Amino acid sequence: MEGMDCAACAATIITAVEGIDAALTAQVSLANETLTVSAETGDVPTATIEQTVRQLGFGVAPRDAGSAAQTPWWAIPKVRHLGLSLLATVLGFAVVHLLGGHDTVVFTAIASFAIFPVAKRAVMAARLGAVFTIQMLMMIAAIGAVIIGEQLEALLVVLLFTLGEILEAQAAQKARSGIKALGALLPKDAWLLDGNTPRQVPAESLQQGQRILVRPGDRMPADGTIETGTSSLDESPLTGESLPVTKSVGEDVFAGSVNHDAALTVTVTKPAEDNTISRIIAMVENAQDAKAPTERFIERFSKVYMPIVLALALAVAILPPLLAGADWATWTYRALALLLIGCPCALVISVPAAIAASLAAGARHGILIKGGAVMEDIAQVRTVVFDKTGTLTEGAPRVTDVIAFSGSNSALLGLALGLEQSSSHPLAAAICAHARSEGASAVAVENPQIVPGKGMEATAGGKPLFIGAPKYAAERVPLPEDAQTWIAALEDQGCTLAVVLLGTDVLGLIALRDEPRSESAAGVQALAEQEIGAVMMTGDNRRAATAIAARLGLTAEAEMLPEHKSARIAERAQHETVMMVGDGVNDAPALAQAQVGVAIGSGTDVALEAADAALMRNDIRDVARLTGLARRTMKTVRQNVALALGLKAIFLVTTVTGLSGLWMAVLADTGATVLVTLNAMRLLGALGKPPRADKPRVERKSLQVSPAN
User: Fold this and answer.
1) Which domain holds residue 605?
2) By Cβ atoms counted within 10 A, which residue in 63, 135, 169, 697 is the most buried?
3) Residues 463 and 564 in one domain
4) pLDDT grade, residue 23 (50/70/90)?
5) How far apart are the first and last CA of the chain?
6) Is 547 part of a structural domain of the chain?
7) Are 478 and 576 members of one domain?
């Protein structure tokens, strides 16, 4: 769609399209400039819909045609018509001055010329079922002003209205720039490898399984896995992280990141329409159409507001002359001015403009929020619940101590390796890695199984084998006093303990520790500065959890199974707004129970899709940035609503009392719309300037380069 400036335009299109056939349902995205039409039965009459929309004065193009080239400001039809109208006005004054008199005829003709495009759109919209439009109100006001002898003011009103529409269009275009900037991160071309020979192809044509060459200084054209080469990549367009990340063979790379150091051969893992940047853009676009409760309320209110003002304008025109013998021309003039205040454009755009700007600002810094409703919930958060492993901590535990009570450490590690190699849990992976590094040989086990939230069990040498937390090991076999002493001492150091049981024997302990992330304490402190409480919920033992929580400055709730976390969050959510921050996989039930679930992780599918919001980089400080952005957004929404309603109220009073006229009423509408849009656009810089991903200067001697090099 081309030419949509405000929510009133969208409402007009929806009314007209749905008026074609009762079976049609239309949805307009002002942020994305798109029209989506579905039919309950039969086919969608595409040609008829396009004709209808064009008759309303809007441009139409298929969505897959891509964005049209930006029209220069001086070539925009409204700008040209305004210029001609201004020229005609100047010539009109010259004619009146030279010939004397004739001002009524001259300025009526010029006003008629100036109002013609507006009147054409108003009449066409009315024929198609959209009667109450700002164009209709403007046409009535201008014609009425001419009839009562205010030709010059009618002309001034039309000129101001046209100028206001141009300013609205430019402000709306600026508000959309955040999302379009994301789209510009994808290169248009890629170097596809035929054997070892690269040839240039459109990036959008890349398919899964193809091999591409990414030269130093190039943007990554697709998501993929490095086949050969090692290089540092700037992923700031996706994560907001300005420091380059070194990646090598077997590691994933994401579309839009910038390759710095060396040529890479990459195997494409996702087609163009499904790469990370494309999915971020789609997510943010969809989020802009997910209306906040405040926005839905404003839309319902605006539908009542306009008829009320129209009825009031009619009463102002008729009642004073009939009841008090007042002058008909004076009160008709005031009623016409009141009509122009009846347009709810500024009010309707006040909320979505702020939400759209905020979503775009967040996306540029790797903070993705799924809609206005989520934004409102985040602004009300008073408690943030964190998962521990992989969220507050590095998610890479290491074995610190191996203590065998019977037999050797090597034998203990062999049993552990035999059982834990069947698990993908981070603790199991750490135990296996340590056992292999110590040269332990895996003992054969039978029927290995996960005991959810507790550990693993199997059969070894005909005896039951169990590895798990001390609490659950003690449920199977009483722990000797020396084992309890070791457990207490190591847990006080922040270690997680795995007890190895074989039959009724306690063979030994394996201690692991997962260090907190370097930025976790600062992230918790930033939340405290916003008066938001922080809680860590973990299945880890109480001593280890308390030790880590003390280092980070939050409270801990330990020894919790997934169902316990979910129930505890549901309990908290009954009396406060709770945000749950986790990795999006292990804590899915808890994420679902919280009013706001936030997945944290760089570029993963889960981080994009599992929760209400996603933080693309593993930085706990982004949680405070997220809550701060949401609070500033809702503050801006309140400012916009107050500004829109306040100006309407002021000019309603001054119009009825005769203190302001038609041209001031136009400023009350279009001026307020521009003001609330500009105020919303300030949110684009709410998180500061996004990190730049400039291409480094690289000397390229030849494209005929072997990918292996």
Assistant:
1) 367-393+516-629
2) 135
3) no
4) confident
5) 48
6) yes
7) no
3-class SS at 661?
coil
pLDDT exceeds 60 at position 708: no
Asked if residue 30 is part of any domain, the answer here is no
d(CA 299, CA 349): 9
Classified as helix, coil or strand, 140 is helix
Show which of 583, 606, 629 is a domain's final residue: 629
Looking at the structure, do residues 445 and 503 belong to the same domain, yes or no?
yes
Beta-strand ranges (E) seen in 367-495 are: 367-369, 383-387, 398-404, 446-451, 455-460, 463-468
Burial 452-482 (b: 16+ CB within 10 A, else e): ebbbbbbebeeeebbbbbbbbbbebbebeee
Question: Which residue reads 């210029």 in tokens?
Answer: 83
Tell me the one-letter amino acid at 318.
Answer: I
Which pTM value belongs to this model? 0.71
387 is catalytic: yes
- Residues 131 and 123: their CA atoms lie apart, in Å, by 8
Radius of gyration of the chain (CA): 33
Of 274, 289, 314, the residue at which a domain comes to its end is 274
Task: Please provide the size of the chain in residues.
Answer: 709
Give 694's DSSP letter: P
* Rounded Cα gap, residues 281 and 360, in angstroms: 9
Residue 521 pLDDT exceeds 90:
yes
Marked catalytic residue, from 218, 234, 289, 387: 387
DSSP for residue 696 = P
User: Do 544 and 568 have their domain in common?
Assistant: yes
Q: Is 313 domain-assigned?
A: no
Task: Please give the tally of structural domains in the chain.
Answer: 3
pLDDT at 109: 92
Gap between the Cα atoms of 625 and 523, Å rounded: 9
Contact 383, 576 (CB under 8 A): yes
User: With left for phi above 0 and alpha for psi between -120 and 50, is residue 380 left, alpha or beta?
Assistant: alpha
- Residues 374 and 436 both lie in one domain: no
Number of H helices, E strands in the chain: 24, 24
Query: How does DSSP classify residue 129?
Result: T
Concatenating the DSSP letter of every residue in 297-344 gives HHHHHHHHHHHHHHHHHHHHHHHHHHHH---HHHHHHHHHHHHHHT--
For residue 692 the two structure tokens come to 């730049």
Does residue 427 fall inside a structural domain?
yes
Of 679, 59, 667, the C-alpha closest to 353 is 679
